[in-house]
Amino acid sequence: MNNEVRHYASGLRATGELMVSISNKLGKYSKEHVNEAIERFKHAQTSLSVISPPTTVTEEHRQLVQALREWFSAIEITHTMKDQEACKKASEIQKQKEMQISKITTEIGHKLLEI
């Protein structure tokens, strides 16, 4: 595995760990935890946007960044909206995005192993 692939894989691993941390913070439902999660996500978004993916996974990387953005937008809605229907829809989107993120990261992993 070359250095470019190692660097990219390391960045993805850190992003995944941050996603877990964000989810754990949100599970506590205090305003302080939600605000901390929002700040951590902004950091993750910045970190992910500056990672240069290997050319073989450029499209998957773009899809991953978009899916993460949509995942977090859904999380924000579920934690800030009072409208039950909007929260229900956002929760469904959040679950869909989690599955999509898992699928994309699996595709990236398979392609990186082939390099």
Structure description:
There is one protein chain. This protein has 115 residues and is mostly helical. It has one domain (3-114). It is 85% helix and 0% strand. The chain has helices at residues 3-26, 31-50, 58-80, 84-114. The radius of gyration is 15 Å and the shape is elongated. The termini are close together.
List the helices and strands and how they pair.
Blueprint: H1 3-26, H2 31-50, H3 58-80, H4 84-114
Q: What is the number of E strands?
A: 0
Mean pLDDT: 83
Derived structural class: mainly alpha
Instruction: Describe the sheet with the most strands.
Output: none
The N- and C-terminal alpha carbons lie at a distance of 7 Å
Write a brief structural summary.
By secondary structure, the chain is an all-alpha fold. The chain contains 4 helices and no strands.
Task: Spell out the key features of this protein.
mainly alpha, 0% strand, elongated
